[in-house]
Amino acid sequence: MQKMLSVDATFPMAMTVRDGVLRYEDGTEVVLWGSNFQPNLYWEYKFRMEHLGLPMTLETMQTMCDDGFKDLAIMGCDLIRCHLTPADFTDADGNLVDTLWLDMLGYMVAKARENNVYVYITFMNQMEYVFLEDSFVPKYTCEQWIFNPDCVAKTQNMIQQLVNWTNPYNGLKLKDDKAIAVWGLINEPEYSTFTQMREHPEQKALFCAWTEKEGAAFNDIHYARYRYGVVKTYIDSMHNLLRAEGAQQPVVWNCNWPRMIDGRRDVFTAIADSKADAVAFCLYPGQDDVGDPFMEHAADMSDKNYLPFLKYCFEDYYHLGWVRDPQFAGKAKLVYEFETMYNEKSSYLHPAMAKLFRALGVQMAAMWTHCFNIYSAHMGCSHNLNLKTTPKKAVGYIIAGQVFHHLPRGFEYKTLSDVHDVFGAFALSYEHDFSVASTPDLFIHSGDVSWCPVEVPTMPARIIGYGSSPLVSYKGQGLYIIDIEARTIRIDLYPHARFLREAWQWHADGRLVTELDEETAVPFELRIPGFEPIVFKKPPGTYTFRLVVDHQSSWVADHVSS
Prior knowledge:
Layout: E1 15-18, E2 21-24, E3 32-36, H1 42-48, H2 58-74, E4 79-83, H3 100-114, E5 118-124, H4 144-147, H5 149-163, E6 180-186, H6 194-198, H7 201-214, H8 220-244, E7 251-254, H9 265-273, E8 278-283, H10 307-315, E9 332-338, H11 349-359, E10 362-367, H12 373-376, H13 391-406, E11 420-423, E12 426-429, E13 434-438, E14 442-445, E15 462-465, E16 472-474, E17 480-484, E18 488-493, E19 496-499, E20 514-517, E21 522-526, E22 534-538, E23 541-549, E24 555-561
Parallel strand pairs: 3-4, 3-10, 4-5, 5-6, 6-7, 7-8, 8-9, 9-10, 14-15
Antiparallel strand pairs: 1-2, 11-12, 12-13, 13-14, 15-17, 16-21, 17-18, 18-23, 19-20, 21-22, 23-24
């Protein structure tokens, strides 16, 4: 069960979709868990780093990227996703421009390959920061990305050049790099409505030309036919372009958030009928419980129970039940983003979401978004996940990765109750704010093990924990990782994390939100049946114990190093 990133002679393998299932070239099913990861975005710097006084340099971003891959390995991730913002590296016609951010894209992809991590690239998005003012993307609305022929042509120009761009860090064209698993086309597509079309002269003229050609009436019923054709043509043209350029990776179309299908059945039918190899969706439990726009309505969601909501998402067609509709049976299923919403404490929710995803047939899931160590202590926001600053939540996310990798695809989603769930080697509880994964070789728990309906192993090879268990007594406020080998035990104690301000609130003043204490020593005791306990009181750090057999054949520590 233990999922560790290591040198793999089969990595990377190309992927394809057969009968709605994403498979490697050797025929095995793809199951990848990870995070959105974006050291190559100008937005990442402007939104999360600039106010801390960090320099916008290649060295800064590369160092941050390298550090991030170390954390991803610990978190059990084998996938990163990045939606590009073309205003970082394109001109007014969609031609590539050599910038820091294009360079970082190459660096990130090369480093992913070195770390046995697959990459899910989405070509189109634009956020509030524009690096190249002349770039074509910010000049169009999100609806125009699909419905404006000039914008479509410029996008095609960009994609053609990008997939043929040679990565200076590994000498591979992006299209030839098998570490790039799939191509997403647009991050969160928007579709011009009948009302929007009537208020936009250019779009109205295009629809009028279509009605004249088709002999159709100018009304919303025929507009749905027109919109179906525009969306399907867009997806198919991009798919054809990629294949013509030799980019064979599966093509993904994002279907956005739950209920997106409501009022857009024409669009979803176009997606189902298109050449897209896969569909993707996002999920943010709690997003419906705050006002819109959510950035202006921050509220603490950590005390709410979202297990019933996840069950409803599975059962209700308009939430996520449409994913199981036979019309999408030929498409692989992905989650392009997910996270808890204004909830930096709960540790039961990620494993519950991972279970839902596998029940829906999902084969790739990428959390939004990796929070790098360089700024995470200063972050307060709607989505915050980091090994050091949100340790309890991070352990829950690690357990979720185990759930995702080891549950079968496409089972019927059921839970034991509305407050807790037990399935196989896993258990989770809203009531206890707790999750656990347990096998003979691996034990992971996200809090004090008082409620634990799964068996605790006697001598696992690895323990990842927060709080105390039958194996460990520890009241520190950071997570710990214990690796047990034949004659050596390594214990990594992470810093104690204490919120100085509400982490769910937005903070961008540069002051600390989470204090990381690396000085306070807290007693630690490891109890392995049949051996003397290892007991010490040290501050956070790495401690290695070399074990020897005494005259009673029990092990004792005779060396400690940090």
